[in-house]
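Suppose you are handed a protein chain with no further information: no name, no annotation, nothing but its sequence. What can you learn? This example shows the usual starting point.
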Amino acid sequence: MNYVVTARKWRPQIFQEVVGQEHISKTVKNAIVNNRIAHAYLFAGPRGVGKTTTARILAKALNCKNNTNGEPCNNCDTCNSFNSSQSLDIIEIDGASNRRIEDIRSLREAVKYAPTTGTYKIFIIDEVHMLTTESFNALLKTLEEPPEHAIFIFATTDVHKVPLTIISRCQRFDFRRIELDAIKNQLAKIATADNISIDDQALTFISKKADGALRDAQSLFDQVVSFGGKRIDSTVVSKMLNLIDEDIYFKISDAILNKDFLEAFEISKVIYDNGWNYIDFLSGLLEHFRNILTTILKQDTSFVESSEQVKKMYLEYLNSFSESDLIRILTYLSKVERELKISQNQKLLMEISLSHLIGLESTTTISELVKSIQSGKFPEQPVKKNFSKPVVNLTEKTNASSEKQIEKVYSVSEAKTSDSVEPEVSNISNVDTNISTEENSLINAIINELGGREFK
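A reasonable first move is to predict its three-dimensional structure. Written in structure tokens, the prediction is:
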């Protein structure tokens, strides 16, 4: 038997096998069971998520003589004739190559004829947005009032190009992008059936590369199997697809915490030597810091789309970054991403940007400091991995001397807590912090300007 690609070999034959589109499968099945069949359906969504497959299953179920709970039996004469591409009652048309008005006129003539063996005569038009304006106009009247035996099913990846007059005459179903875990589970099922050994990290690489399209993931899976054989690990997948190693992103976040500027140039050299795209790398770096931010906010990795091994690495950053620092990093990287697209020397810009990123200091806002002074207590500071001493980031209108005095108050409190293993909360007073009368007046002036109470 000739080889069949995975996407065709594992194409769903019933609604239950369609991955990631349960909301559509359930609605269509219920419509069949309750005999609420529409005369026109519009399936819209990104590529490779099951639009055409669902249209074929729906057409088969409508004409199936033994359907159960809306599912086709795949054993009767009508199901077998369709599966062998010999059905005269289910006509599949490519909208890209049959887009002229003459083709639509021929379709209108075919609609008039009753089905031969099935209950309905069904017309599936794939990539319907490719039809010309004249073709859409010629289809309007037939689409609005077709014969009772005629049903239209349209599929499109660009629903915005379909006229509203067509959309309003159809039941519209929006297919969603398939989640990473759903793609991984399907690929793992295929690998098990084909006796292929593949690890979780490799499945994650393939699924992320597919970007929500199961068909793309299956095509990549075929390539990886051709390259690595029956035993596949993440190294094989990374080498075959020339993927950017995720460890490099963790090296950057560690370099920020350790203030290792040399790492910026070493990472830039690795990117250049491997031929990785700098824009793709920066997009991955943005996602990396986004993952750290969500991990800190949620205190878990439920928002991170990656393997279990990588998720454990993100949990190690729980006490290493503050939310405000991560927002600054993400804002800066977004700005660099725009500049990188128009840069003439991307390698140099990347080295400068990474150096600047590593040089960013941890910040404490003036509002947080004033709140601490007003309450008479300083909060415990998170433990950071070899992080340099936080500095005050004055976002309000203050002069240079004000900044120096506030930083002095903060550093004294920090020095007191560093002697013990568990930092104790310190009460602020003129006695235990040795604040002079001049310093006390300066702090009170800042607090009064911000509307706070006098500090004593």
